[in-house]
């Protein structure tokens, strides 16, 4: 029977992971307890149990100390009595005598069984604590066993964990046999064994879900710098890429938002804003306040406050509902954020302060004085010699060609003397040369074309009959009709030929 016990201990070691030595100690403790309870030994008596692992034999020995005068015979023995057993005993030695009962009986075996079971449970709890105490901050998948308004019990497979009401997502329903992912928030060792507390609102859950969904985060190419979360409502995640060819925001969002939508579905339709982390605090604050557009940021390093200026029509968008957007941006960046509109910033003079701050940073980087950057550089003006005025007489052909290109018909006017045209020429070292008509036409992008008269001959229109003079009525002299000179056939209309039917 004892050999069967040794085999059972080996099976327990394989199945439960409990070492055989620990079980042997538990059995020895159980036998001592059974001996004291069933065979009249006092609790103060000293008993040693020897368990032979090879043969499975169990022996019980009582232990008493050798003294001059005996006060308690259950733990002490006189020197004379000890020397009767062995003459070599001295005062202070321990005398052991075998007191193994002939038959422990059914009661002794049952007592030993209960003690062994208790030791096995304690060993399992110790193993569970050792395993899960090193997994604080990990994400595990569990099944809801039972849920009420105070807590929810979650089965993790080898242990049962607790989800307190304070760590539940507001508005989220927990149904039995529902599988969810949880964040291991804390592991405690209590008298009833290890107690594991889970969370669904911890920012670490959001970080771990992105690590599971985004391969670039697992490989280390994209890093999550910070997370700000208001569970069940909205969250912000700042990401950074070590590879300049990888867009960190696009990697986390995924094709058509597939990756971020998987995280949103796991968290119960929680809104998630993914922004790019920047080393420059001003740029990081601008990104954190998205989707609002930030015009400029003034940093107060002493108070660790970022004064931001947004357009007047985006002030409410930057603050968010009940200040949520500004609150999450402050948690994400670690800076207090003061948001002003353009009108408010103009009254406070934030723009001048922003320009002065930029100037200080540039002067520190370039090693120059701040006033040199703030003062605009005056351009050096070169002295230009006054332009010479050249008088050019334009011939009559130019006067005819220019109007002809602009309009189809030109009325002839009495010849007039050509007026000199003053043209400002660029300063030259040599005297100005006269400009010919073709050259002048080429400068004005007008090519001189042959007139219609030069190509087809002159066309004379019949003169209108003069009116008969009337008696006793003085009339004004009729004005002489001006002849039409047709210069371009493409511009002619039927009315220009005066085709009238004869009466």
Give structural attributes.
five-stranded antiparallel β-sheet, four-stranded mixed β-sheet, OB fold (Dihydrolipoamide Acetyltransferase, E2P), single chain, N Utilization Substance Protein A, Chain:P, domain 4, 19 strands, elongated
Short synopsis of the structure:
By secondary structure, the chain is of the alpha+beta class. Among the domains are: 2-128, NusA, N-terminal domain (N Utilization Substance Protein A, Chain:P, domain 4, 2-Layer Sandwich), CATH 3.30.1480; 135-199, Beta Barrel (OB fold (Dihydrolipoamide Acetyltransferase, E2P)), CATH 2.40.50.140; 280-372, 2-Layer Sandwich (GMP Synthetase, Chain A, domain 3), CATH 3.30.300.
**Count of individual beta strands:** 19
User: Cα-atom Rg, whole angstroms?
Assistant: 53 Å
CATH class of the domain at 2-128: Alpha Beta
Q: How many helices in DSSP terms?
A: 17
CATH architecture of the domain at 2-128: 2-Layer Sandwich
Give start-end ranges of low-pLDDT stretches.
Answer: 376-381, 387-429, 471-476
What best-fitting shape do the alpha-carbon axes yield?
elongated
Mean pLDDT: 75
CATH topology of the domain at 2-128: N Utilization Substance Protein A, Chain:P, domain 4
Q: Summarize the main sheet.
A: 5 strands, antiparallel
Q: What's the CATH superfamily of the domain at 2-128, by name?
A: NusA, N-terminal domain
**How would you write the strand order of the largest sheet?**
7-6-5-8-9
